[in-house]
Amino acid sequence: MSNENIALVASALTNSRGTTILGHVSPYHAIVRVTLPNDQKINVNVDGTGDFLVPVPAHITQGMVKVTAVLPENSDSLSIVETEIKAPTPVVTGVLATRGGRRFLEGSVNQAKLEIVLWIAEKKEPIYIVPDQNNEFEIEVPDNVTANMLHVIATNPITGEQGVGDITVGVTTETTTVPILTDEIIAAYVSQASQPSLVGQDTQPVAVEPVVDEEEMAAARVIARQARRDNHNMQEEKMERSRKQNHKKRSPLSRFFHALFGRK
């Protein structure tokens, strides 16, 4: 049986992301087990340097944790340490911001499951705030409210610890109205821009020779000729349809004389 001793240390670290059990054991091949306050037991993976960490479930926010280590070949080498899970002191921050003529209190807390209450000066009833999954919140407040009229208190319902927020004034943003450009506005602008600017009475308009591309002009002539042919053909078809319709409208006697004399 080995007389080797076990060195074991462990502590609980709690922040806004939750609680983690951090520890170290030597020798590193010792078997480590963590027992949580709800009596849940977790077998721990120890790395090659003897360090280990164990995330604690989010619903466990306080209580004593027992950590044990034992050598696999020596049950008498058992070592035990205890550490306490304690929620950090509540911290709440707030910023009073103005957007589009409306006022908002924006803020955050350092942990989940806190009870957050907003008190506004001259108001008898508090406003209860529910933060989102990122522990952040936003609530609209009256336009005449200033930072020193707001008091935010965050309370841990389990430990009873409280944190009072300091409200600061944030950046004010205004909404700029952008005019909609209609076709009439654009046309008027182009018309004005195309006219020469007169600096003085003696200023003479300058004639600008257009830049003509010969290939483009040739293509335009071809398109124009084709358009004239198409228009001529359409007129011919229209006249032919008109003659046929007039022929159908003649009376039987008129058609008889037309066939006999070749005219009406």
TrEMBL record:
The UniProt annotation puts the region (Disordered) at 228-252
Tell me where on the tree of life, at the top rank, the source sits.
Bacteria
Compositionally biased, Basic and acidic residues: which spans?
228-243
Instruction: Tell me which InterPro entries the record gives.
Output: Ig-like_fold (IPR013783)
- In Swiss-Prot or TrEMBL terms, this protein is called Uncharacterized protein
Q: Which organism is it from?
A: Weissella oryzae (strain DSM 25784 / JCM 18191 / LMG 30913 / SG25)
